[in-house]
Amino acid sequence: MADRDQIRKIQFTGKSSYIVSLPKDWIKDQGLKQGDQVTVGRNGSTILEVKPVSFGKTSGDESSNLIIAPEDEKSTIVRKLIALYFLNSKTINVKPKTGTRISPTHRIAIRNAVKKVLMGAEITADSTDGITVQVLINLVELSVDGAFKRMLSMAKSMQTDALLSLKEGNDELAQEVINSDDDVDRFGFYIIRQLTIAIENQHMLEEMGFKNSRDCLGYRVIVKNIERIGDHAVTLAQDAIDIKKPIKGKIMTNIEKMNNFALTAIDNTCLALFKNDYLEAENAIKESNNIKKYEDDVLKALEQSKNSEEVFRVRRIAENIRRIAEYASDIGEIVVNMNIEKVTKKN
């Protein structure tokens, strides 16, 4: 007999309470111990659900130590810090190698990483002898879906503003696009951290709305695709700053049409993701392939240009936008994979 079907005897205690014991294996699986709290709620008229109040511990340590040496590269230290964040470490103690101190350069790099990259993390101690990073945010405060929607909205806004900076030759707007990339990355890292926790904890998996751990892996790939939209926006914004020459006329009009189509394709596949809709995902994949028509229109308008630098520049812009539509197709394929069982069962 499966654990969930074990028969337990109801006992009477006190004057008005009934008690029932919980299976030992279930307690261990949830990472619970004597004295921990659970919630008991009704699900329909005949079912009671028992859930841990906390979302439980994962195999990641609550507290982790990161030992750094004076010769360590800043990028290496930041990567290790991010890796520990992904492992659901609640406290990260950055300590210098025995006999050394944390250099000012390393301290600045760690502070910047915590501020710009690690969502919900704060530095609670900072000296040459050690830095303590505390992760305060949790699933209750910001759901995966909520974080993803905000991340998607920011990436799309970056892309739209990048196009506007190219059209107007607006350096200030272009720089703002580049600065916004850190915010998109913060949401991405937060989501990946939560997915890592969910894969190791069945209760959290269900709380996040995933059917199985396989869906978590698909969601992670989708998040990386949204991050790349922000990266393409940064590329276009940097182009506006470097060349300082607005793109105008029919060429720019066709670029804007191509960009609007690509972002609509992303919207359609993400909508299919939120609705877990196989057919919408299939339709969105087919529609995203029409990006070639819009790219051809851009290149056709470019035929009249006699400026080789402009030709190279516009071709590069069109390629960046085409990649976004390709990401939409990739996301659609993941949504299809996540929902294929619904279709086969129905058939």
Description:
With 347 residues, this protein is α+β, with helices and mostly antiparallel strands. The protein folds into 3 domains: 3-52; 63-135, Translation Initiation Factor IF3 (2-Layer Sandwich); 144-346, Up-down Bundle (Methane Monooxygenase Hydroxylase, Chain G, domain 1), CATH 1.20.58.220. The chain has 11 helices and 8 strands. It has helices spanning 24-29, 74-86, 104-116, 144-168, 171-199, 202-207, 213-243, 249-275, 278-288, 291-302, 308-346, and strands at residues 11-13, 17-19, 38-43, 47-52, 63-68, 91-96, 121-127, 130-135. It has a 4-stranded mixed β-sheet with strand order 5-6-8-7, covered by helices on one side. A hairpin with a 3-residue loop joins strand 1 and strand 2 (17-19). Helix 4 packs antiparallel against helix 5 (171-199), helix 7 (213-243) packs antiparallel against helix 11 and helix 10 (291-302) runs antiparallel to helix 11. The two termini are 31 Å apart. 33% of the residues are buried.
Query: What is the CATH architecture descriptor of the largest domain?
Result: Up-down Bundle
Please tell me what the overall shape is.
Answer: flat
Radius of gyration: 25 Å
Q: Per DSSP, what share of the residues sits in E-state strands of 2 or more residues?
A: 5-15%
Mean pLDDT: 87
Calculate the terminal CA-CA distance, rounded to whole Å. Answer: 31 Å
> What quaternary form is this?
single chain
Residue stretches low in confidence (pLDDT < 50, at least 5 long) are 55-61
Tally of DSSP helical segments: 11
Give the total of beta strands: 8
Element pattern in H and E = EEHEEEHEHEEHHHHHHHH
Main beta sheet: strand number and arrangement?
A: 4 strands, mixed
Spatial sequence of strands, sheet with the most strands: 5-6-8-7
As for the CATH topology of the largest domain, it is Methane Monooxygenase Hydroxylase, Chain G, domain 1
